[in-house]
Amino acid sequence: MAHLSRVLTVLLGATLGALGAWLLLRPPPSSLPDTPSVVQQMRDVARLETLEVALYKKVAFVPEPEATDTLWKDVLIWARHSIQNPHGRAIVFADARLGFDFQRFDKSHLQVAGTRVYVVLPPLDVKVELRPGETEVIDSNLDSAQTAQLLEKARLAFEQEVRGDARLKQRAKDSAERALRGLLLTLGYREVLFVDTLPTATAG
Predict the structure, then answer these.
(1) Nearest 5°: phi and psi at 156?
(2) From the centroid of its chain, how far is CA 167?
(3) Most buried in the list 49, 125, 127, 128, measured by CB within 10 Å?
(4) What is the helix, strand, coil percentage profile of the chain, to 5?
(5) How confident is the model at residue 61 (pLDDT cuts 50, 70, 90)?
(6) pLDDT per residue over 83-131, tens digit each?
(7) What whole-number distance in Å separates Cα of residue 180 and Cα of residue 203?
(8) How far is CA 115 from CA 32, 68, 93, 99, 146, in A?
(9) Is the Cβ–Cβ distance between 52 and 95 less than 8 Å?
(10) Distance CA 155, CA 149 (A)
């Protein structure tokens, strides 16, 4: 029985080895998909590859009085602003989404050379959405318009931080490249190279 088990193991190993060799050495498909079809499929796949990150931060806001077209109105606004001392603080929660703008991806971002394909990723797109249900406003005497300014200030600050985070951008890039490479290999291409610019002036 042990001898039979060893024989079956050897046969299974040989079969798997032969299958692996066939997959590597098999001839390329007789016809690869046309470029517009590849572009559309890449758009569809990349649209699903969006990196999502949860964020939170304590922010403070002190609005400046708005100037008017008359001096006396300005004086009254400044006086009211000084007496009321408008200010606000909040703990703001948000979701950031990093993905590549594949609406701008077309055949000029793709070049095919036999079974090798070169890909230039489109610009990275960053979107931040606040989670108002989880945001906590503290120590505030702001009116609704000023509170909206505070939250918009927080959203823009989140967006700026995410755009400047090299680690997050690299994670988004790796995720997109992994998904697109898997798609292109499935379509029959043997080698997928992500580059900053295509090797020649025109895409195939």
Answers:
(1) -65, -35
(2) 12
(3) 128
(4) 50, 25, 30
(5) low
(6) 456 667 788 899 999 988 887 788 888 899 889 999 999 888 899 999 9
(7) 18
(8) 8, 66, 46, 27, 58
(9) yes
(10) 10
How many angstroms separate the CA atoms of 78 and 96, rounded? 37
The answer to whether the CB of 185 falls within 8 A of the CB of 33 is no
What gap in Å lies between CA 75 and CA 92, rounded to an integer?
Answer: 34
The tokens 């991806």 sit on which residue?
A: 105
Q: How far apart are CA 166 and CA 198, in angstroms?
A: 24
Looking at residue 165, its amino acid is D
The residue behind tokens 């088990």 is 5
Indicate the angle between helix axes 166-186 and 35-48, nearest 10 degrees: 140
DSSP reduced 3-state for 34: coil
Residues in Cβ contact with 108 at an 8 Å cutoff, skipping those fewer than 6 apart: 198, 203
188-204 confidence digits (pLDDT tens): 899 999 999 999 754 44
Whose tokens are 């007496």? That residue is 83
